[in-house]
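The following block was generated as part of the benchmark described in Methods. Ligand: carba-nicotinamide-adenine-dinucleotide.
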Amino acid sequence: RGPTLSSAAADRITLDKMVESLREGVYEKILVVAGAGISCSAGIPDFRTPGSGLYDNLHEYDLPYPEAIFDIDFYRKNPMPFVTLSKEIWPGVKYRPTITHCFLSLLGKRGILQRIYTQNIDGLEAIAGVNPELLVECHGNFRSSGCIDCGSSYNADDCKSSMVMQGEAPICTSCGGLVKPTIVFFGEVMPNRFSQLVHVDVASCDLVIVLGTSLLVDPVASIPNWVKSDVHRCLINRDVVGSFILNKPTDVFLEGDCDEIVRKLCQLVGWEDELDQIYSHT
Ligand code: CNA
């Protein structure tokens, strides 16, 4: 016999049940999937929000199509759009972590974070104090750089001063090719760390929290689908995305602004002071 309607209802995850489980320490291995939406309140636009998203605001770069800014062949012909974007978002220069980044840091400090898979390249999770061991920056970061032709590594500080101070792409000292930070462009392979960790993480997590992403870029977009079928999944976003469908017993959708929602969640669980403490130190 399958579950009766009433037992299915009893098993259904709700905000109240999730809060209670967080308070009582039921979840011990939380897997987080994050996207550009968690950095919007820091001042960094996302890609796809109509009007404010980067894709609607790329006129100044004169790109043939929006994704060209992260296209390796286009970079080879015209690195300036990416250089200009990098100058804007280079970690530690202009933007500070949001309440949501601090919430992720809080999960880490409480020892209940399995891993964060972030699609963001702004480095704000690390700046918020997330232990590097608990972080997979799926689309790379600005902390290292290399030649797009011969692959030689290039000093990241020198790359930063070329791009941020001089506003130009550095040239490889070995082969004369163009250098870029180790941001994963379309068609490039993801960091090894992703494939090394993701299988174990999806198999062992006991809650998935997805925040601020349209879940349109694979393979990260598929992570929430790879967890066991009875694992609770919480989506904190402005809209329903990916395989989250309303009324699925394992899923809870908290609709709206992620900073407001994680603050509310922390209030309910009793973690708000801790959250504010982390925020005040970033
Ligand atoms: P996206 O496709 O732009 O989607 C963003 C999602 O977040 C949308 O569903 C929005 O509705 C939602 N959203 C926006 N603001 C908020 C908010 N305040 N609270 C809750 N939800 C919100 O971005 P994805 O991350 O899904 O796309 C993957 C791309 C984006 C990756 O390759 C990134 O490298 C790239 N990107 C990164 C950054 C960054 O590093 N900060 C910025 C822009 C784009």
